[in-house]
User: Fold these one by one.
Assistant:
Number 1:
Amino acid sequence: MKIFLSNDIPNKAIVYYTLQLIAFNKAEKFVYVTERNGCNISVGIGLENTIYLSEKFFQHLKEKKTDSKFHLNSSGRIVLPNSTSTDYLSTIFYYVNCVQEYFATEHDQHERYISANAAQAKFGIKQNFVQLLIDEFCETVNELKYLKNKKRPSGFLLTHDIDFVYKSKNEDGMFALKNRRWAAIPKLLFNHYVGTPDWLNMHKIVAIEKRFDFTSNFFWLVKKDKQNSDYRFDSLDIQKQLQIIARSGGTNNLHKAIGNTSFDEELKWFTEKPDANRYHFLKFKVNDFKRIEEAEIKIDTSLGFSDKFGFRNSYGLPFMPFDIEENRVLNFIEVPLNIMDRTFFNLRQTPEFSFSQVEHWMKENTNDCIFTINWHNNFFSELTYAGYEKFYIKMLEYFKANNMKCYTMKDLKEEFLQPDFFTMPEHLSAEC
């Protein structure tokens, strides 16, 4: 498939990246030519092109107008000028790269982007909307119709944030007191004071996953203070847990702390540099993604809303982010976070009801997704968080029953980390 990018495109790098995202999604290879003659598809602003674009979209980006009110119509799409037709390339790019979050002026108490302000709050967070747009795009462009039905089976990634280990004595203890679970209190106290607190349970988590032949990935805080962890990362007890995880085939990764420490300062605590990161409390801005690249971390999995489950960027697959400030693809992959235990706990739903919601959602997304699960170690407690261990096991049973692939960090890097594929060649970079 030969594609010509017209010189009237205000930002060729964005258009190239988005076309490559579609090609990658459909396991296809596009060839880009420098002459219109002989091409199969031409892309540009003018109506003479096979695919034409909204110049207004690029103008708004230049003016740093990124809020959805400047871009999306009542159906959540960017449309072509003087038309109701969808500008597919601009809309896909806008959602995948969380463009709405750049230059946002409102944030929550943790300085996070507010989910209620997101386009997903209006148009739906449960739908893999970008995949729908990609499929529609391939159906709309005659030359690409052969791609419309190409799918990949959905898989999953298991992760665990380790925030607290020793807090079980207080939190589970208070729960036991309030609920008159008197018999549980001596055991909690004994375990705490002999150095085996109930939430120091990574071996238990590994054993559960081993029953299904799955492995998982743990994210550790190296900073101990009121905002971060209650454990010393370099303590013998914690290091033993890291060894258990490594021997199981799992990975130990960075849970970037809240505060002023840099990635480099925190990464030095690890004997072997981690491949992956997740921000503690999901406290980050998309503008921070450059810091991940600078630290040479290859995988981040922070892109999820703490109060909603689904697709924060309306896309089901990992992707290499495009930085709209530096106008280039960043050299790591973002694996969006979809499902987190505390989301449901804070909604005060029963674990059984929450699982039924998740199962229904997964059944609606059997293709073109990698479901990323975050289950904290404390949610394997049968006191404060009773029922959440069973919730987790039910998800594992669902994955096993449906023969879904358990992705490893190595799998993700090999499949999705393709900087050469997404970086525009110099011979295409001529601007008008």
Note: The mean pLDDT is 94.
Number 2:
Amino acid sequence: MLKKLFLIMMAFLITFTGVNWVEGVFSPDIEQKPRQFQTDPNHFTIEFFPTAPHYVGDTLSVRVTYSGQDEIANREISLFSGEELETPLARTQFSGFTQQAVFYWVLDTTKMDPGFVTFFFEVSEMGESWSKGLHLLPRPTHRQAEWAVVHTSCCTVHYLTETDAEADIKDIITILEDRTAVAIAQFFPDDDQAHLMLDEPLPIVLVPIVVGHGGFASNEAVLTYSKRNWAGIGLDILSHHEIVHVIDRQINPVDPRPSLFVEGVAVYLAGGHYREGDALLRAAALFDLGLYLPIDGIVNDFYAAQHEIGYMQAAALVAYLVEIWGWDTFVNFYFNLPDGPSDLAIINAALEDEFNTDLATLEADFITYLKTFTPDEEVKEDVRLTIEVYDTIRRYQTIAIPSAHFRTAWWPSISHMRDRGIVGDYAWREKAPFNIIIENLFLEIHTEFDRGNYSLIEKNLVLINSFLDAVEPEKTPLSHYVIGWPLPGVPRLLTQP
């Protein structure tokens, strides 16, 4: 009997010695390895991309954000897979500017089995190491999107198959050709110069998800195109804005580019921000509403200012300068700015050199000019509600989709993704019922702007914010995918949002 009890105890020890509970699953014991890993890192936040849910076939990236007080710039972080703790899967360094370290496309899950995947992280200089994992669901049968391309007289247009962009590509091309032609003519009134610009087609990328406010640009313009674009920006205005950015960079890739002028030019030439509207009249409405922001207070950190106010004022300032100087003088001024330690210093030096003035004096004259406008109540209501709506959109993004907020957006290089055939980061974003409810209300709001139905806009804003108030303080999970949905034994058809 004692011998039998001894054998049972030994079997128990053999069974449970050598395993360790990590992030909710059993994994090989790491206590016998050279490193010790926590499950709750100090001051480090880990995000996996594409965003959850994760499927077999995804190529995973990881972003680590540090929120502590120690110096993190250039410190190395190593990433290990759960299969190999001796040799890192990848190494990278933290940026001192963003306090982040990013591992781009470090794990191709195509040949992996569904289940829980554990990663291990180590910042050896700080004595920090921890584990973090994700649920990898079976490969979906309904996702076959691939990158496609069409070449037009104006542009090279990249898009994803099985999206609204593919269905509407002919109409999209017409809009892009028209808006590109107008933008080029705005920069280059001379037909010969415009023709030369067309020898280098503008790179345009269409994605079905909302990132930021629906578009961004570097050396190529990235635009949200979806029949359910809850950011509410039409392709005509959005494409014109981002096309202006691309042309701007092509013409002036080296000299200083103060954001005040970069965004002001784009909104001014596009004819509005989000919707068409007179830049000077809307800036005058800001002044009447007591919302005007002193330019010297926003010029050095333009994107930290309230977004809509900053963009409206920037466009109005450009419109004012074009009126008093003429377009040719303004463009010559903008494309020949001197180097300087800050945007304010750059603009002041250029104004002093060219016009014997400074930004403070220029702004005083600008404000005097704005006071000559008398925006009616409809314009003021439109301006006020535009600010409130997009503040609410960003609040929704912060709470429910941080990877879509322009301050925390996940927008990796699309050209690198195309080269590697990766689509997941921009191809889709699955929605829980919470997302669908909120985004439907935003879609109604954008429709009512066109109708001037401001009372319904107010009603929807109150409702949206009441929902956000309810979930924000409790940190309530907004998606069942966070817990690894679908649960075993539940047919996938019944779990689709």
Note: Confidence is low (pLDDT under 50) at residues 1-33, 482-497.
Number 3:
Amino acid sequence: MLRGFTKKKVGSYTLGEQLKKLRAEGRINLHEVSRETKVPVKYLEMIEEGRHESLPPDVYVKGFLRNYAEFLGIDSKKLINLYSRERDIKNNISGNKKAAAPKARKKVPYFVVTPKVFTAAVIALIVLGGFFYLYKEIGRFAAVPRLILTQPASNEKSVDGSSVTVMGATDEDAKLTINEQPVIVNDKGEFKEDIILQEGLNTITIKSVNRFNKEAMQVLNIKSNFEKPEMTASMEKGSEGEVSGEQSEKKEGGVKVSVKIETLPTWLSVNSDGDLVYSGTMLPGAAHDFKGDKEVRITSGKANQTLIRVNGGAEKKLADDPGIVRDVVFGPND
């Protein structure tokens, strides 16, 4: 599990208020939490909004809270105890309301159901329900998850730009990865991910795994015909000496950050002057330039795989951390 937080004390708020407060302090949205903890966004929302009655059985919820606490860097036992206490209080209140409700007047039925008829009906429903459940579960166990790609088209073998958007649909409870990078799937099973390509041939592997560990996979081989910008291409020649165009880049003003990925696919988020300009996966060897007037802010899922060159300066790693590093800011004077 990737960690970006230090240990923090849990205050005297409700469970949902505490989690929202900690997320706000770290400037994290629920999709980022879901990506790192593998907990679906809808369950994270239910936990934070206190909708305990809509959550799955406690054994799953406690696992969600344990992953959430580990990601935030807080004591998981305190979160689980707080969840259990709030759930018990709600259950007690709900039970009292039901006990206090006035009893409805009994109505005389138009026909009398005999014990034999009732017993036969119950047995028939149980048998039919059992057969339906077994049929459904056996079908799911035997079948691989659906995996449909709507973009790029199946006949698209090359692109002129430096990126491609992968869109499609799978089972809503399946785990989806693109080149081993987790991708968020919404409640309808839909997904969308922008991939920055390296020059030449790129292999993109989309894999979906359901809860029975059955998997479906599609492999795309896409050739990128774009030519690397002068600044990005210079990153492959080493960091010694002044690169061509370095002085002119600094004189133009603003900030320019050239990003290149080493050997592992890496998720990247880039903000330019406060606007999100990219969020997606960069393949090994892929390179791209990002510009801003005042600042460029970078978040990387694998900081030590992310090579950067700022305003024509020397090439360096974003950080030595093999995990996620958030909101590294670069300005015109860097």
Note: The longest helix spans residues 115-142.
Number 4:
Amino acid sequence: MSLTTTAAPRITYGAVLGSPHVARLLGATLVGRLPNGMAPVAILLWATTTEGGIAFGGLLSAVYGLAASLAQPVKGRLMDRHGQPAVHLPAALANSTLLAALPLTGSYGGPAAATAVVVVAGLTTPALETGLRALWPSVLPDPHLRHAALALDTGSQGLLYIVGPPLAAALTATHSPALALSVTAGLGLAGAVVVASAPPTRRWRPAPTLDVAAGHARRLSNPGLVLLFVALVGIGFAIGAMNVWALVMAERHQQGMLSGTLPAAFSAGSFLSGLIYGRRAWPGTTTSRLTVATGGFWAGWLPLLALPGPYAATAVIVLPGACLTVVIACAFVTTDALTPAGRTSEAYAWLLLSIGTGTSAGTALAGRLAEQPVASAALPAAGAAFALTVLLTARRRLATTIGWPRRGRHRRPSRGRHRAP
């Protein structure tokens, strides 16, 4: 079986955002996830302006991101068992409290206390992205509108990293690192509360997990799903390596703004691609679009091997950013198709963890090779090539190993206590 979508008329985003609850859920999720872009920068700047220094701040920032990624599958499984508000609200409250309290550790606990606070804050980061992806089928039953919402959701993630880091830096420069951390905490909590209190979030329940005795697997270890996640590690690797490459470009050309301009151009390509991709249902299978987009993602990095100048590099990097949105959107659709009922949120969380793990690995390796311009420029393409190779190997499994029914994936509550959104 393959996931085939026939061509359809263009879809207006007015129709998508005008659908009940969509604007609230999408907007609040973006606000609640803005700390994903702000917190690492705010933590780094706080440590730099205290006795910790840049090295310690970099460690804290990395630890926060790693802890947030590792905890995603646990939160996803909890949401599948207990619903989203029961997970979002305690996590957001703990995360916001700890971020706001981090400056106090400089006076009362020192580096050990700061590290502990950052680790727990990362572990309690709300899984809003995972939750939103699980909500779309119940909020938008029309597959064409859902396709557009998923593309818009995926593409708009770039805004988090265009707006978040500069906002944290501006608050630190004009006021203090403590205020930057407090604003980060407040935005995260406000977004999570708005999402968790929305009627679709409160009413959503996952489909009952199918019984093994009935011949349906409950595990997530579907071979196609595992190979997809492995491929996404390569996608994340390319993104992580790109961030370090941008710093290398800034130092080599003595233009500090390049460290922010290049990732911003990459994110802008992703955002614009999401707007275009979501406006129509494309012909062909999801597997073929995933493979072609990954090929474009790989090809987009190749011009960097020529060591282009700042303006050419800024233009070139838009292409892999544009392909990224299609890759991620198709990856979520494929994950949904290959996941047993009742485990969707957990599967989405593993998808995000795969990308996050690759990003950390790409950043670490690129940091070691930062003194070698050609190697630094080649790493994003290497990560994309790995992803493309895995997907080409796994195409048959991704297209045919759908062992669970597609209907009833997201159960609507029965009448009475809960009503369907």
Note: The chain has two domains: 20-143+160-206, 213-403.
